[in-house]
Amino acid sequence: MSGVQPSESRASHAGSQRGDPDKTTWPTGPVGDFPGTTTELIVDRLAESKQSLKEILEKASIEDPEAFKRAVEEAEQQQPTSGKNKWSSTAMMLLTKELDSDLVNGLTSEQVLKKREEFGMNVLEKEHKEPIWKIFLLQYTSPVVLLLLAAAVVSLGFQEWVEGIAILIIVTLNASLATYMEKSAGDALAKLAAMAAPRCKVIRDGKKTDIDAKECVPGDIVLIGTGDQVPADMRLFEASEILANEALLTGESEEVRKTLTVDDPDEPFAKNMCFASTSVTNGNGKGIVCTTGMQTQVGIIAQHLKAESGSKLTPLQQALNKLGGIIGVMSICVLIVVVLVAVFTNYRDPAHPSQNWILGIVLVAVGFAVSSIPEGLPMVVTICLSLGCRDMVQRKAQVRKLPAVETLGSCSVICSDKTGTLTEGKMTATTLVTTSRCSEGPVQQFSFYPTKGFDPNGGCFRQTDLTKEATDGIVECYDMGKFQEYDGVVTDYGNPYNKDLYAQKVRTTLMAGFLNSHDTELVKDSSGKWFTTGNMSEGAIVVAAAKGRIGPAVNEENPHDKYPRDKDLEVPFNSSRKMMATIHKLPKPGEFEGMKLSESGSFTHVCILKGAPDRVLKHVKYMPMEDTANNYNTIDWKRSIEPDELQAVMRINQELSKGALRVLALTIRPLSSEDMAQLQGLDKADDRLEYLLGKRSAEAKTMTLLGLVGSLDPPRTGVKEAIETARTAGVRVIMITGDQKTTAAAIAKQIGLLRDYETEEEYAILCEKLHKEDGSHLDDGDLDEITAKVNVFSRAQPEDKIAIVNSLKRCGEVASMTGDGVNDAPALKAANIGVAMGIAGTDVAKGASDMVLLDDNFVTIVAAVEEGRKIYGNIQKFVSFLLGTNIGEIIYLTVAIAAQMPLPLEALQILFLNLMSDGCPAVAISREPAEADNMRVPPRPKNAPIMTRDWWLFGIMPHVIGEAIAVIASLMLGLYVTTGYIFAKDISNSCSTFTMPQNPNDRDPLDPRECRKKGCTKATFRYYCECYEYTVDDGWVTHLDFFNPQKGEMQQVLRAYKGWEDGGLLSPSAPANPNAEQLPSVITEAYAAAGCSEAVAGEVTCGTETYRVDEDSNWWIQGDHPEVDKKNHVITYFDCSNYGARRGRTIAFITAVFTEMLRAYTVRSWDWFFMVFNRNPWMHLACSISATLTIMVTIIPGLNTEIFKVVPVEWWHYLMGIGWAFFNFIWDEVLPKPVYRRVLARRKALARERESVGAKV
């Protein structure tokens, strides 16, 4: 059935969705948490076992700050972190020598192996990993298992060895299976967690290598940068604008600036060290590893801290708790009523006529408790969630936190980044715009062609020159394998041999872009395929520069050697600046790549600034100009850029943005030696940027605009379809990007995120509009009004993401948020589902997320939502299956007790039914594929009960009624054809009994006179039974059981008569010696052969034995010493009465098993069963196992009669039992499903009618 019920629309639950979902309260305590608690514990154990030690410490610092503070202080005493500590204060040369390392080449491979053997792996161990034996014992803590153990103890106390031992065996088998499944699920999640393990860059054997962080050893040279998680405690020897978040250790959220020297040696957490598990939020640098693993500061803190971890309740756990409360209250009430009825009516089971009365009531109570609690639910939920994680990985989504699997099913809003998620993230520069004062105007536009991925084989051409004939010629040259030989077709302005002034402008601009993108490289692999390493936006510039013959990939001359970069003065890019600056030394003062910077040659360096046009253009004052006389370009220092010139640049920026291009502006500022001295005195990047932009001088603007680079990042394949799928599913998609509004809106139009009638002005917004004039965010009401409508947020900052997601949550949405940078971590944590990028994402972002996209693809998010809905839908199905069958058991057991009929099932049979028979189909249901309408219905409300009103009305209650009718009818008919009666009293009255005193210790018969001396109990014995049965060949027959005085034991005569002897054979007037005409010859012959005397004073003598005569029937009875079965307190003999009752119960047992087995086929979908019959082969296997186990239980000697108290039955009895099961099957198909489909169609029609009325209004 569909995982989301259409009747439970989002609108109808708007009120319940508002507010803090974590403050929702459900019934608690032993009643409220009855079955849900076990599921929650298993889910929590699995989730907690995959939490990193860092996450555990973070939680501990919040929940018990005092204990955390003490642990930090103890760790500080054990291993100081201040500037006075060994690692911080030792001179770098001595430290390097002590660690046997090399700052340039790092460790050798041999050194790494030796150090790993000495120091071990760099892992932060949690307190312990729960051993399998503890997982096994934890299975015995659930309420239902404790109840069963109590029943086993009671049974053993009454010396009911078979029942007691059987319960223990079944409980142990279930615990073993649950342990195996939990262990398997845990191992699977551990493998998934390993996929997201942090990595780091180290220098080994003189080469930069990317390794798993756990492979770090002391002495390793580690490279760190923005977004990295520090792998170990390390001493820095290179640091460029490094900011670290050390809140994990200090509790302070403010970022710490790292330096190479320590100002205050007494201050904890020395500034020249970075500590394991902290994160780098800005800058880059190098350090030498000092300590690893549990010897790091975070490891030592963990050793002093006994942290208890937990997780907040998810929608599934809330729903299960609520359901648990309902079931718990219901089961306790019914149990009390049933036990009272059994006590006051003196209920006795004819199948166990001599069973201890108290034990009988206890077993009845256990049977009801077992039937009312879905024992298989915890195990199946665990299996479903763990298998769901595996399925997610197959769809390229790695779940870090187990409950996120089902939370995805309620996701109503997806907040997605643009670059790399909605788009391919493979930037290709297509357009170059140069600026200068010339006859053509202030801007000149060029195109890069061809653009085949990262292949540098191409050129830079005037856009007006690229006619169809020209492009065909270029492609022909490309296909012929010619490398950058296009001048014969059309002028290539990227060719360095072209001395045209336009070509010089192109190369100057491309050179500036290449030098500024120093961390990105263009390389070719062994197969000849080109790719870039580093930033994707810079990758496009580097490839474009290569088409201008710039860069080591296409030219022997390396521009980085020609224009050395001063890395200490660099201003790194970050999301708030939206720009970055690099400073390079000029090989020839006053000249930069063919452009004259000044006649005097006073400029020794040049600053290249690259960034967003709307941020950069406001700082531009100058632009180049052509010196046609000397055939070079220069900067027009005499005249500032004119408003119309700047307007022309901004206009073309708008045009490129509307074409969905990401535009970057390239500017330069020549620097003198005095400027360099000023910059070298500024430690902070922001201060240097202010100086470069002229904010620290009278000259407010200083930059010279070279041009613009427009890069195309095409939408990912399938994104448009995925957005439409999400929209159809009622899931809203929001784009939150740092790009310009025009670019973002253009991409949104291309991928269908903005529909044709949704304008940029109305549905797209700059995030600065979310702020007041003082910079703070708008009031909640105003912000909520914007987020309810706008689908494209541009120029977003990390704090804007947090504000947006919090606004959506206030409006009752379940929001997912994507992110890749370190600054995205707070937003990922704030979202209901934080989604990090697996490829482009930083370790910090991954650590804050609930799910990681292994391919960084938006399509994967929608696929994960679909998978989450499928999983939750399957959970609903098997919960409905288990509840329907269990409540059905309660109903037919209650009816049987109230009607004074024998119980349809005994306690062990119910246990077999719920754990063995139901378990396999329930697991198979968890593997059902998604429904056809899975993504055509709205997301479920996050606070909705797991079983909605529709599930109760159309899914559970009809089956409950049908199952009760089927099993009771099968029991009645089964009892009637096997005993001739239906009610327990009539069946019991078919036998005559007498009582005899017994010793309570050894259960041996006692002389009545001894009772007063020793104390005794009374046991009941049968001495004559007259039973009826219907047979296929003879019709009704009568069976007799009688005491044979010749043998001194009971004897049975099967089919003593054909037909039904009305009034019976027992008569008070019958003589002590039975009438030969009344009884079969075997009985009369037995009495005659015994040679018995006439009855004297109520006794007869047969040889040496003396027997008593029953006062009512005159039938002879055993003497004072009958053979007694100490187990059952009866003669070791099945009389026809209890045997017939067991046969009738066996038929009902067959009906119950097949009813529940067939229910697994009808609960799968609201469609007819044959439409989905073969879509899940696991279902056929599961039901085959259940059917086989049932048949085996009824036919295997010993297993049937001694353990499960069933007996072999005739072939047509099987057909009768299965026939009633099919009655319930047809009931489930014919009654509720068509009614529900009609109700659903009516609701849809009413919804369409309301929409049309609203549209008219």
UniProtKB/TrEMBL annotation:
This is P-type sodium-transporting ATPase4. NCBIfam families: ATPase_P-type (TIGR01494). The chain crosses the membrane at residues 135-158, 164-181, 323-345, 357-387, 878-899, 951-977, 1178-1199, 1211-1227. It comes from Vitrella brassicaformis (strain CCMP3155). Residues 1-39 are annotated as: Disordered. It is found in: Membrane. It catalyses: Na(+)(in) + ATP + H2O = Na(+)(out) + ADP + phosphate + H(+). GO terms for biological process: intracellular potassium ion homeostasis; intracellular sodium ion homeostasis; potassium ion import across plasma membrane; proton transmembrane transport; sodium ion export across plasma membrane.
